[in-house]
Amino acid sequence: MPEPLAPPSDEPLAADADGEHQRVQTALAEVAADLSARAAAAGGDAQQVLEAAALMAQDPAILDDVRARLGGGANAEKATWDAYAAFRDMLTEMGGYMAERATDLDDVAQRVVAQLRGVPAPGVPASDEPFILVARDLAPADTATLDLEKTLALVTQDGGPTSHTAILARSKSLPAVVGVVGALDAMADGQLVIVDAKAGTVVLDPDDASVTAARAERETRLAAATAPITEGALADGTTVPLMANVGSAKDAPGAVALGAEGVGLFRTEFLFLGATSAPTVEEQTKAYTDVLQAFPGKKVVVRVLDAGADKPLSFLNDAHEENPALGLRGIRALRASEQILRDQLTALAAAQAATEAELYVMAPMIADREETEYFVSLGKELGLERVGAMAEVPSIAVLADQVLEVADFVSIGTNDLTQYTMAADRQLGSVSAMQDPWHPAVLRLVKMLGDAGSSAGKPVGVCGEAAADPGLAVVLVGLGVTSLSMSASAIADVRAELLTVTLDEAKARAARALAATSAAAARQAATV
Ligand code: PEP
Ligand code: MG
């Protein structure tokens, strides 16, 4: 269990401020170099996370703040620690993606202070034996560079399903259960435990039979990861295309290599998160063409800019709102700035004309038929063939029959659909237990959408994190979902699980989950 570094003392500065400033500057550069080296070694998603951390370590604003604090009489460690804390508070205040990155800053601060102290940075303890790692939370730099030969599974006390730890663990196919309240007190070094990431449970002191079953399950999982890449299908041959979620053209080669049959969600706002002005049609055409080119003849579902709440785009909605998740976001923000939406749809039509991919375009946060009609007619006016809606607001599920009269397809965003169904902020650790797409209330809404899709003869996919949970993927198919899109690294496990059930079995599991009275009960009813 990794221990955090003790915080610095309040002792006043006893040395020369300029010399101490120089010492902090050197420590920052060394930490940045170490993080960059870890980034290069890690590759993939982890590389981006660690490169961002290396940049944070070198942020000139932090060094300026450290100088001011040294000038005010703080010692070097304290000045550094507090400068990072102030920066972290500022990011937390900004909310959304910025707030999630705030916890990464704590790790950078610990590394710099360790460097100033001349002690090793806190990290994963070395072990000769394979082990299950239990921690309060893990720094991205540690998660990204874990020795996967030794680390069997990960349990953290803090962190929600969208924390970097969870995302990186998923991208490494490392079984992980995050946000286990009291984990550190409940477990001791050397204790035997089973981590069942599928069921989301940690079993302490299991009996021999459970250990044997868990070992067999692990073997099956490892075999699935190396199984040949085939098209997504159930045991009876029912096809279920398995697609990838991407944020830019950089993600495309990895997705293709892992067997993605297309893209089920291209989050275009990821390209422009830092931008202060709207991207031009030319810039966008290039970015979209780059992604579409990687999937000739394949389906690529592009989501138009999803601004607001957890994805701030200052050029679309920078008004301060008390409740941004319920505010001017998604299609509402685009409608309020229609020229930005027109430019994006124009760029998408140009990218479609320039490539061989089968382009589908959808809008986020659509609530009803009127909004669907608005978006579909604008998309068609600007030359797009297949235009649809994301199902993230519960009202669209209730009105699914009406919406599918006008939309060419629907894709369910289970992250937001769960947040709004359960009234549980997806960014908030204290309500993360409510943020569970296994909840029968969420599953019943998915069924309404699946039924409406099958009556209308139109596709209904899932592109939220729920699709990456193999057990839940089976249930979603049983509820009428026709394709699944997820982080490419999750595809192998989902493919293997789908192959173990027929459509009738998937429907039976779905029926049991729908009848359950809680998320945990639904998971259990569908998994046994
Ligand atoms: C979702 O809400 O499930 C979704 C896929 O969109 P995002 O996670 O980008 O909000
Ligand atoms: Mg969403």
Automatic annotation (TrEMBL):
<dbReference type="InterPro" id="IPR018274">
    <property type="entry name" value="PEP_util_AS"/>
</dbReference>
<keyword id="KW-0808">Transferase</keyword>
<dbReference type="InterPro" id="IPR050499">
    <property type="entry name" value="PEP-utilizing_PTS_enzyme"/>
</dbReference>
<dbReference type="InterPro" id="IPR000121">
    <property type="entry name" value="PEP_util_C"/>
</dbReference>
<dbReference type="InterPro" id="IPR008279">
    <property type="entry name" value="PEP-util_enz_mobile_dom"/>
</dbReference>
<keyword id="KW-0460">Magnesium</keyword>
<dbReference type="InterPro" id="IPR008731">
    <property type="entry name" value="PTS_EIN"/>
</dbReference>
<feature type="binding site">
    <location>
        <begin position="415"/>
        <end position="416"/>
    </location>
    <ligand>
        <name>phosphoenolpyruvate</name>
    </ligand>
</feature>
<protein>
    <recommendedName>
        <fullName>Phosphoenolpyruvate-protein phosphotransferase</fullName>
        <ecNumber>2.7.3.9</ecNumber>
    </recommendedName>
</protein>
<feature type="domain" description="PEP-utilising enzyme mobile">
    <location>
        <begin position="129"/>
        <end position="200"/>
    </location>
</feature>
<dbReference type="GO" id="GO:0016301">
    <property type="term" value="F:kinase activity"/>
</dbReference>
<keyword id="KW-0598">Phosphotransferase system</keyword>
<dbReference type="Pfam" id="PF05524">
    <property type="entry name" value="PEP-utilisers_N"/>
</dbReference>
<dbReference type="InterPro" id="IPR015813">
    <property type="entry name" value="Pyrv/PenolPyrv_kinase-like_dom"/>
</dbReference>
<keyword id="KW-0418">Kinase</keyword>
<dbReference type="InterPro" id="IPR040442">
    <property type="entry name" value="Pyrv_kinase-like_dom_sf"/>
</dbReference>
<feature type="compositionally biased region" description="Pro residues">
    <location>
        <begin position="1"/>
        <end position="10"/>
    </location>
</feature>
<dbReference type="InterPro" id="IPR036637">
    <property type="entry name" value="Phosphohistidine_dom_sf"/>
</dbReference>
<feature type="binding site">
    <location>
        <position position="303"/>
    </location>
    <ligand>
        <name>phosphoenolpyruvate</name>
    </ligand>
</feature>
<dbReference type="GO" id="GO:0008965">
    <property type="term" value="F:phosphoenolpyruvate-protein phosphotransferase activity"/>
</dbReference>
<comment type="similarity">
    <text>Belongs to the PEP-utilizing enzyme family.</text>
</comment>
<dbReference type="GO" id="GO:0046872">
    <property type="term" value="F:metal ion binding"/>
</dbReference>
<dbReference type="Pfam" id="PF02896">
    <property type="entry name" value="PEP-utilizers_C"/>
</dbReference>
<feature type="active site" description="Tele-phosphohistidine intermediate">
    <location>
        <position position="164"/>
    </location>
</feature>
<feature type="binding site">
    <location>
        <position position="267"/>
    </location>
    <ligand>
        <name>phosphoenolpyruvate</name>
    </ligand>
</feature>
<keyword id="KW-0813">Transport</keyword>
<keyword id="KW-0963">Cytoplasm</keyword>
<feature type="binding site">
    <location>
        <position position="392"/>
    </location>
    <ligand>
        <name>Mg(2+)</name>
    </ligand>
</feature>
<dbReference type="InterPro" id="IPR023151">
    <property type="entry name" value="PEP_util_CS"/>
</dbReference>
<keyword id="KW-0479">Metal-binding</keyword>
<comment type="function">
    <text>General (non sugar-specific) component of the phosphoenolpyruvate-dependent sugar phosphotransferase system (sugar PTS). This major carbohydrate active-transport system catalyzes the phosphorylation of incoming sugar substrates concomitantly with their translocation across the cell membrane. Enzyme I transfers the phosphoryl group from phosphoenolpyruvate (PEP) to the phosphoryl carrier protein (HPr).</text>
</comment>
<feature type="active site" description="Proton donor">
    <location>
        <position position="463"/>
    </location>
</feature>
<feature type="domain" description="PEP-utilising enzyme C-terminal">
    <location>
        <begin position="233"/>
        <end position="500"/>
    </location>
</feature>
<feature type="domain" description="Phosphotransferase system enzyme I N-terminal">
    <location>
        <begin position="9"/>
        <end position="101"/>
    </location>
</feature>
<feature type="binding site">
    <location>
        <position position="426"/>
    </location>
    <ligand>
        <name>phosphoenolpyruvate</name>
    </ligand>
</feature>
<keyword id="KW-0762">Sugar transport</keyword>
<feature type="region of interest" description="Disordered">
    <location>
        <begin position="1"/>
        <end position="20"/>
    </location>
</feature>
<dbReference type="InterPro" id="IPR036618">
    <property type="entry name" value="PtsI_HPr-bd_sf"/>
</dbReference>
<feature type="binding site">
    <location>
        <position position="416"/>
    </location>
    <ligand>
        <name>Mg(2+)</name>
    </ligand>
</feature>
<dbReference type="InterPro" id="IPR006318">
    <property type="entry name" value="PTS_EI-like"/>
</dbReference>
<dbReference type="Pfam" id="PF00391">
    <property type="entry name" value="PEP-utilizers"/>
</dbReference>
<dbReference type="GO" id="GO:0009401">
    <property type="term" value="P:phosphoenolpyruvate-dependent sugar phosphotransferase system"/>
</dbReference>
